[in-house]
Design goal:
The chain has helices at 19-31, 57-64, 75-87, 102-112, 155-167, 188-197, 214-224, 260-269, 281-292; strands at residues 10-14, 34-39, 47-48, 51-54, 68-71, 92-95, 118-120, 126-129, 133-136, 145-152, 172-177, 203-209, 231-236, 273-274. The protein is of the alpha/beta class and 293 residues long. The protein has 2 domains: 10-120, Rossmann fold, CATH 3.40.50; 141-292, Rossmann fold, CATH 3.40.50. The two termini are 20 Å apart. The model has no long low-confidence stretch (mean pLDDT 94).
């Protein structure tokens, strides 16, 4: 069983008529995701990719029964799009846009408080439940259905780890990219909670990286409760220079905080097994699952 999405997920795309929205919406439809509409203010009443386009999320939801949104809106207007989806009470919103201004995300987080929406992202590669649903920009071809849940901050490493897990004869229940921007919606801890509660997820892989404290928060959560499933982690950036942003805006260590070493130490104290190298994640979770059986 997947988390966050299922065969009943109906997706609308905010920003579908732009190049990126068009390209990735088409790829999602090819994968089998049920995309039902697009939303672009001022273009309501048109069709695009043979789908209706609406001016507002509320209109699109009322007409199509959409229960999820994918956002391809430039950073300056992305927060407005997120808040519109939250106010329309969409249960799931996935935001691909990266480098959304931090103060804008503070307003989004305020809108989320007490809402009915789960926000994934921004700067998320999306959600992929093999043979069930894809929302976002994750590469496909290597995935297969199975029992490993993946929660990741890194898009490129996610594709590598999915291929390794499939290559070990395993598969994935769901892969979730929580987002690489410093302020985002669903946390790694919240994803781990969902995977631990999912009866068909047998083990969990965390793909972390330098910057922030999300991995330490996962460690604190797991220390407070005995995990019923094996958890394996890969932390990228062990050799990154301090106080220099590496890639996206979340990968930044400052004054000894957010470094790979402290994250690894915290996770090890919580009995999380650390993959010794990025090319050994698949083997590490395979061995952990064998020991747990």
């Amino acid at each position: 069983m997947a988390i966050l999405v299922d065969k009943e997920t109906k997706v609308l795309c905010q920003g579908m008529t732009g190049w990126a929205g068009t390209h990735h919406t088409a790829r999602m439809m090819e994968y089998g995701t049920e995309v039902v509409a697009g939303v672009t203010p001022g273009k309501g009443g048109r069709t695009h990719l043979e789908l209706p386009v609406y001016d507002t999320v509320a209109q699109a939801k009322a007409e199509t029964g959409a229960n999820a949104s994918m956002i391809f809106v430039p950073p300056a207007n992305a927060a407005k799009a997120m808040i519109e989806a939250i106010e329309a009470e969409l249960p799931l919103v996935v935001v691909v846009t990266e480098r959304v201004p931090a103060l804008d995300m503070v307003r989004v987080r305020q809108a989320l408080d007490g809402s009915k929406t789960r926000l994934v992202g921004p700067n998320s590669q999306g959600i992929l439940a093999p043979e069930i649903c894809k929302i976002g920009v994750m590469a496909t071809g290597s995935e297969r259905p199975g029992g490993v849940g993946i929660v990741s901050r890194s898009a490129s490493l996610t594709s590598e780890v999915v291929a390794q897990i499939s290559g070990e004869g395993l598969g994935q229940s769901t892969t979730v990219g929580v987002g690489g921007d410093p302020i985002h919606g669903m946390s790694m801890v919240q994803c781990v909670e969902l995977f631990l509660a999912d009866p068909e997820t047998e083990g969990i892989v965390l793909i972390g990286e330098i910057g922030g404290t999300e991995e330490q928060e996962v460690a604190e959560y797991l220390q407070a409760r005995k995990a019923s499933k094996p958890v394996v982690a890969l932390i990228a950036g062990q050799y990154a220079p301090p106080e220099r942003r590496m890639g996206h805006s979340g990968t930044l260590t400052m004054y000894g905080r957010g470094d790979a070493g402290s994250k690894i130490a915290a996770l090890e104290r919580a009995s999380v097994e650390i993959a010794p190298s990025s090319h050994l994640v698949g083997r590490t979770i395979r061995d952990a699952l064998l020991r747990a059986r």
